[in-house]
Design a protein that fits this description.
Elements lengths: L1 H19 L5 E5 L2 H10 L9 E5 L4 H4 L2 H11 L4 E5 L7 E2 L2 E2 H6 L3 E4 L3 H10 L4 E8 L4 H14 L4 E8 L1 H11 L6 E4 L1 H7 L5 H7 L3 E3 L4 H17 L4 E3 L11 H10 E8 L3 E10 L8 H4 L15 H4 L24 H4 L4 H8 L5 H7 L7
Parallel strand pairs: 1-2, 1-9, 3-6, 3-7, 7-8, 9-10, 10-11
Antiparallel strand pairs: 4-5, 8-13, 12-13
Helix pairs in contact: 1-11, 2-16, 6-7, 7-12
């Protein structure tokens, strides 16, 4: 414990020293929901030098799922005879016609699971039921979806389908930079995703946009050290790529997991909340596994649905505003009665801010007044 305290103090001292060498204020963005929660829980925002700001990016899989996809989830869940399986955070996300939680109250057979294999097992045990698994998440959860489809094929299941809404992190990061709406000076890269894709996947960002990228772990000391390193790289004018989570992340990533993904799914243009359509930023089921594609089986049509009136989740997850700049935050939108997905999800920026940061006084006001929008 004492060793950890010493490491934390050293990291913060490095951060302050590097911040004094900056010629202008900097904005760093984390693109991992677990990082977002860890940063807020540890109080790291309150320890930042005045010229270093942390912005939350599109790292929460629930938060980036488009309203159109949410509506498709609800549409399928309400179909007679369908047993609908999904992850817990999806239950309370609101679409244009309510939420899955509301659909459950209307009689929909909705199951909350931790593994898609639970849906496969249910389908095998109940051949007369139509089973649909709503698959969301980044590269971290995508291998499990691929395994579930392969297992369904192995078992010869005719009653199992996947409604895939998987996303890829790198295209989203590139889209943020190409859009020019947010002024960023570096990325705190996700730990879990990097285990799958490898830290070399961020090389195009460093080389094309000349921004430093640091892969970080999840403990407070790891996050503080990684932010300190980002600040040092900017102060030194070095747009480098560094891995500060070597315990789990390698240069090439998990090839076995990635091969499973590519066997069953392929890149496609998909819509992100707050960003819009991003080319080849999602993973959809390949045609050769089309019998397990719920969109094909049920002839679902793409939907473009606006976000709830007044909700600024799309701006929050792209660093264009902070939760307290949304008029709904903490008033009509709370974890008990959420309006937008950023307040619904346990990894959402709004929920993290509400739990750990909303009464942070002067520092919170400073952070809320720091704009990520490029001038």
């Amino acid at each position: 414990m004492r060793h950890r305290i010493v490491e934390s103090r050293e990291a913060l001292a490095r951060l302050r020293a590097a911040a004094e060498k900056l010629s202008a204020p900097v904005n760093f963005m984390e693109v991992c929901g677990t990082h977002t929660v860890s940063i807020f829980r540890s109080g790291l925002h309150s320890l930042m030098p005045a010229n270093v700001t942390l912005l939350s990016g599109p790292g929460c899989p629930v938060c980036v799922t488009s309203q159109g996809d949410i509506d498709q989830f609800i549409e399928l869940a309400l179909r007679p005879g369908v047993a609908f399986f999904t992850y817990g955070d999806m239950l309370r996300v609101t679409g244009s016609a309510g939420s899955l939680e509301r659909a459950r109250g209307q009689g929909a057979d909705i199951h909350i699971i931790y593994s898609p294999m639970d849906a496969v097992k249910f389908a095998a045990a109940n051949p007369s039921r139509e089973v649909v698994f709503a698959a969301v998440g980044f590269e971290t959860t995508t291998p499990a979806t691929a395994v579930a489809i392969l297992e369904a094929q192995k078992l010869g299941l005719k009653n199992f389908a996947v409604l895939a809404s998987h996303k890829l992190v790198i295209p989203a990061m590139l889209a943020l930079l190409e859009g020019g709406q947010v002024n960023l000076n570096g990325f705190l890269c996700p730990g879990h995703v990097s285990i799958i894709i490898g830290y070399e996947a961020y090389r195009p960002i460093v080389e094309r946009f000349h921004l430093p990228c640091v892969v970080a772990g999840f403990e407070d000391v790891h996050l503080a050290a990684s932010v300190a390193r980002l600040t040092e790289l900017v102060a030194e004018g070095k747009p480098a790529l560094e891995n500060w989570y070597p315990q789990a992340v390698t240069a090439e990533g998990n090839k076995l997991a990635w091969n499973l993904i590519e066997k069953v799914l392929e890149p496609a243009d998909v819509s992100w909340r707050g960003v819009g359509a991003i080319p080849r930023s999602g993973m959809v089921i390949r045609p050769e596994y089309g019998q397990y594609n719920a969109r094909v089986r049920y002839n679902l049509q793409p939907k473009e649905v606006p976000e709830p009136p007044g909700c600024r989740c799309g701006e929050v997850i792209t660093g264009r505003c902070t939760p307290v700049e949304c008029k709904l935050f903490g008033n009509v939108c709370t974890p008990i009665d959420p309006i937008g997905p950023c307040m619904v999800s346990s990894e959402g920026t709004c929920q993290a801010w509400f739990k750990y940061h909303r009464n942070a006084g002067t520092e919170a006001r400073r952070h809320a007044g720091t704009k990520g929008v490029a001038q």
